[in-house]
Amino acid sequence: MMMKAATYHGFGKALDVLKIEHLAIPRPESKQIVVKMATSGMNPSDTKLRSGTSRALTDSWQIPGSDGAGTIHEMGDGVTSFQIGQRVWVFNAAFLRPNGTAAEYCLLEEWMVVPLSDDLSFQEGACLGIPVMTAHRCLFSDGDLQGKTVLVAGGAGVVANYAIQLAKWGGATVITTVSSEAKAQHAKLAGADFVLNYKIEDIVKRVNEITDDQGVDRVIEVDFGANLHLNAQILKPGGTSVMYAFVAPPTLPLPIGALMSKNITLKFTLIYTITPEQREKIISDINQWLAVKKPFFAIAQEYSLEQIADSHLAIESGNKIGHIIINI
User: Fold this and answer.
1) Do residues 145 and 191 share a domain?
2) Are residues 34 and 123 in the same domain?
């Protein structure tokens, strides 16, 4: 039996290398699951891999998409916690493996598959992978947030928007930065307590006003190099700055004196390479979060599988607010 899949066989521009092919439906081996995909979530990591700016291809071909949602189609030996037809969301599908989610069927390891509750749509399920898991890891890798103050940089970004929501769920006061009124409204919908426009406001002064000159406990940072000096000023002694992305490598020298004098910790996060124990904790907390609070899912645009190149262009434009979803 055959399936449709978006593929590319070499790096390049989206319109040049992405195409739709008919491939054999994969068969699961031990501890593997084949999911009939309903949706695929596109992330910046997908466009970076396709363009050749992140790493080499795992195989001679690649189906893009690490996140998605659908139903269990077939299970290999040793899979006992799922049933055929069960609704699920998936993650990590395209990391160091060619079988991504932008296809009618996706072959996954059992640990990449999570039950999807009936009150969430497949489109919403496709949002729960890299962005939500990254936000959780950045926030909670140093313990709970009850009573703490967190600054989330770029609060209209996909990861940052979930970081706002999860930080509020964890009991924190949340400050976030944005660059426009439209992005400010998006951050407010996520629950941010204070939304600061870094284009027109003095962020250090405003953070000091909000925190009575105490500073923030944690910074969740989307552009480590650009904001390193700022974060050294607004973090309280013993605070932590957690980076999950950067636009360009930081310009040296680091503000070593300011960082050292406050005993500040700099941390780096890549959700794909965390330990199984860390992953299990994240998924457990996400399930608890979903059980008590319906998240604010922002879906910017939806595309068909045949429009896979357009979905990559939408991410690369930098103009979207929210997720890019492929409806299979």
Assistant:
1) yes
2) yes
Structure confidence by residue, pLDDT tens digits, 237-286: 999 999 998 776 666 678 888 888 899 889 999 999 999 999 999 999 99
Q: Are residues 140 and 122 in the same domain?
A: no
Reported pTM: 0.94
Domain membership of residue 167 (yes or no) is yes
Amino acid 158 reads V
Count up the domains in the chain and report the number.
2
Cis preceding-peptide flag for 131 (omega within 30 of 0): no
Query: Do 242 and 157 fall into the same domain?
Result: yes
> Residue 252 domain-assigned?
yes
What is the span of the domain harbouring residue 176?
A: 133-272
